[in-house]
Amino acid sequence: MAATVLLGPYVSEYYYLATYTILQFIVLGTAWNILGGYGGYVNFGTAGFFAIGCYTTIVLNKIFPMPLFFEMLAAAVTAGLVGLGTGYLTLRLRGVFFSIATLALAIVLQTLVVNWSFVGGARGVYVIRPPISGVLMAFFGFFVPNGISYVQFLVVLMVALTMFAVLAAWAVEKSWIGIGLAAIRDDESAAETSGVPSLRLKLIATTMSGAIMGMAGAPFPYYVTYVDPATAFGLAIAVNSIAMPLVGGTATWWGPVVGAILLGSAQQILTVTISSAANLFIVGVLLVVFLTAAPRGVVGIVRSWKRGRK
Amino acid sequence: MEFSWDLVINAIVTGIVLGGFYAAVAIGVTIAFGMLDIVNIAHPAFMIAGAYLAFLGWEDFGFDPFVSMAVFAPCGYLFGRAFYRAYHYFFERRGDESLQGLAFFFGILFIVEIGVVLVFGVDYRSISEPYLESSVSVGFVSVPWRMLVPFLVGLGMLGSVHLYLSRTFTGRTILAVSQDVEAVRLIGANPIRAKEIAFGIAVATAIIAGVLLIIIQPVEPSITREYIGRAFAICVLGGIASIPGTLVASLILGVAEALTTTFYGPSWSPAVSFGLLLLTLIFRPVGIFGR
């Protein structure tokens, strides 16, 4: 954390923006993986949960300004509750119905926001960055005498959120929740017969996953300062959050991290060198190539390579 | 908008005509998802492929949309068979359909959409023929041929698929696959081949639906997302594998959307199909005709 801040004066602003984007995708990929990778339930609505986070911040910023940390908590609660609600209504059905419902959820939410003029409707809304709170400024002032810029502050915040998300995924994976989810993924009826409380586990996973996605969206309005529904519900978010865990490998906590770093950096380079439409195209192609040629992702490749050497 | 019975009747007629076109959109999903258990969320991608092929044929060779259907639907059929082969080899055979297979279709949908953006840009494309510009009016209700042609073709498609599935040996094998794969093997038919043919038909119907789409309205790449909702809402509401159910659900969705557009404005119409889908999943996941 200190390293990011200390490098401040020597690195151009672009690298902070790029780092922020990659960290955001690590958080989203990790959150998706808690339900998708461990439990085998595909969520197509990541962009919806992310946008709930964005718009929670926008609404709170308009009616009752507060420190970003509390806005993130509010976003986590809202997105978590939406996840819980969607899960409660559809997780009793076959898994594919949950997937289709999440797809529907994102579009219904987008239509609501487009028609909601308080948050700018389809035209979007400008957001004014609040000042960094005095306590935090004093804390950073201890490391860097000149203090830090708002973007640097957001990067530090994102580093913390990333650590939190990965730690949460790790904890789920190693606990009874993760073992139960793996049993559901492999054979749901067998798991239920052996006494795995499958609905409860799936609801825990959906709520956690949704809450973390919402938290990832909460700082986004301050990062871009202008948000419209097309950005908040962007296709890039939905695709990347699925592609990154699947390319990295879904069975472990580090798969999505590897996938997000690989695809995230590749996209940053491609956006600069070619175009942003082309880079999304390449993400799609990579996703399909990995699914067909290496269905266990980078983690699977590394594992079989290790096994081959023994 | 102010309420009046003229508007209501107009909206209902428009909705029924629109519903005929939605039947053409949904029949492929009913076959693939309902009968073959293949969650083809890339269905709208095949649709916009059909729409842009019709556009190219019209612009470069002066193809009438009906010529486009006759030329491109068989190509779609062959492509669909090859596509199913690949899907079976990589996912079904390994038992990976539910996670990797679903993500695969999502990837294909995405690649096609961005591919079309890269080739054609995000501008709206449309085609026009003199006979499409006129309309039929009865009393105060008037329906343009632009809408009537897709309505009639959609009903025709639904009817022919129904006849094919119920009257021919291969068609009945396809219906049997949807019920019991092992039993199909026991009577000596090859379920993989039946699924391959059925998926080919599903893709061919998507291509035709795409041509119909560009007859109705100008097309741009991101239009696919709305049609995922429409196709799956109809399929689920109609009871997943039922062709009469597909027809009834298409008409319901068409009328619901037309009424919403008339009284609340077109910006709410995407929420109708997805809202209907969510409500069906929550309250009646077996569909209107389900038991």
Task: Give the gist of this structure.
The complex is a heterodimer of chains A (310) and B (291). Chain A has 310 residues and is mainly α. Chain A has helices spanning 2-6, 13-39, 46-63, 68-90, 95-114, 134-143, 150-174, 176-186, 188-193, 198-217, 220-224, 229-232, 235-248, 254-273, 276-293, 297-309; strands spanning 125-126, 226-227.
What does this structure look like?
- The complex is a heterodimer of chains A (310) and B (291).
- Chain A has 310 residues and is mainly alpha-helical.
- Chain A has one domain (2-235).
- Chain A is 77% helix and 1% strand.
- In chain A, strands 1-2 form a two-stranded antiparallel sheet.
- The longest helix of chain A is centred in the N-terminal third of the chain and has 27 residues, at 13-39.
- Chain A is globular, with a radius of gyration of 20 Å.
- The mean pLDDT of chain A is 87.
- With 291 residues, chain B is mainly alpha-helical.
- In chain B, 77% of the residues lie in helices and 3% in strands.
- Chain B has 12 helices and 2 strands; from the N terminus they run αααααββααααααα.
- Chain B has helices at 5-35, 43-61, 65-92, 97-120, 130-133, 145-167, 169-179, 181-186, 191-216, 224-237, 243-264, 269-283; strands at residues 135-138, 141-144.
- In chain B, strands 1-2 form a two-stranded antiparallel ribbon.
- In chain B, a hairpin with a 2-residue loop joins β1 (135-138) and β2.
- The longest helix of chain B is centred in the N-terminal third of the chain and has 31 residues, at 5-35.
- The radius of gyration of chain B is 19 Å and the shape is globular.
- The mean pLDDT of chain B is 89.
- The A-B interface holds A 36, 40, 42, 44, 89-90, 93, 95-97, 99-101, 103-105, 107-108, 110-112, 114-115, 122, 185, 235, 239, 242-243, 246, 250, 277-278, 280-281, 284-285, 287-288, 291-292, 295 and B 39, 41, 86, 90-91, 94, 96, 98-100, 102-104, 106-108, 110-111, 113-115, 117-118, 222, 225-226, 228-229, 232-233, 236, 267-268, 270-271, 274-275, 277-278, 281-282, 285.
